Amino acid sequence: MEIMSIKDKILNSRRLPEWLKMQRASGESYTMVRNLVESKHLHTICKSGNCPNIGECWNAGTATFMILGDICTRSCKFCGTATGRPLPPDPDEPDNLAESVRLMSLKHCVITSVDRDDLPDSGASFWADVIMEVKKVNPGTTIEALIPDLRGVEEDIQRIIDAAPEVISHNMETVERLTPKIRSAANYNRSLDVIRYISNQGIRAKSGIMLGLGEKEEEVYETMDDLREAGCSVLTIGQYLQPSLDHMEVVEYVSPERFNKYGKVALEKGFLFVESHPLVRSSYHSEKHVES
Fold first, then answer.
1. Across-strand partners of 109?
2. 105-130 pLDDT tens trace
3. 3-state DSSP helix/strand/coil percent for the chain, to nearest 5?
4. Cβ of 69: how many Cβ atoms within 10 Å?
């Protein structure tokens, strides 16, 4: 643990471009959300994923909740979430999460999860229970479900669709060429099939990619085309930041100007909503993505 701590300190000391410098997370609302998350024994991707927007979002009284524990069965080279053998799903989590959404008075809620390849249905039935409980306790709250690939099993994807979240998101993360290098047990075409199935059921489909992993400009445009062909209508584009020295190194810090260019091209290709900026993450401004 001490070795990891030293390595992380070295990593954090690396100089970042000016546009990636972030304010320290603090403030009354931030403290309220943090205390609520801790008291209800909830997990958030905000913390486990080292999200750079945690201060902004938590001070706005919003958070992206992560269900099914905080230990993932996969070991992707870009992700800061712990890998290992997860605990059984917490039967109190649907109630705790629904009550937390109520206490925070959220009009829109984002829910995600670790991969649970250890469960027969990859956690899909638990996903459905959580979504339905949140809706029952908070009938005016809209939901985005940011799901894993569920091993591409349509029956399991349908369980989540039947729970009726307003948006279902599944991230491509990167271009096809780099997918085997950074995504554990994932497949580029399978992820496209997940998005296609969601869209074909009439649900708003959303996805996200990271830049700075060594992708070429034409590959980014090819990924956009593949997503549009699959029916994806919302796209987020952000800068990859290395969680630790054990993760994939950053190849490039992409300038805000190039992010603006990618955002404009994505809109021209027909995406309804595009969030493209170095600090953008999957759930950034997600409340906008429910709109028609």
1. 143
2. 788 889 999 999 999 999 999 999 99
3. 40, 15, 45
4. 20
Domain that residue 40 falls in: 24-290
What residues does 204 pair with on adjacent strands? 167
Task: Output the domain CATH number for residue 102.
Answer: 3.20.20.70
C-alpha distances out from residue 39 to 34, 81, 110, Å: 9, 21, 19
Question: How many residues appear in the chain?
Answer: 292
Measured CA to CA, the distance from residue 37 to residue 25 in angstroms comes to 15
Query: What DSSP state is assigned to residue 243?
Result: S
**Pairwise CA distance, residues 149 & 139, whole Å:** 27
Q: Does 10 reside within a domain? A: no
Instruction: Say how far apart CA 40 and CA 92 lie, in whole Å.
Output: 10
Query: CA nearest 286: which of 169, 194, 149, 139?
Result: 169
The pLDDT tens digits for 231-287 are: 999 999 999 999 888 899 999 999 999 999 999 999 999 999 999 999 998 887 788
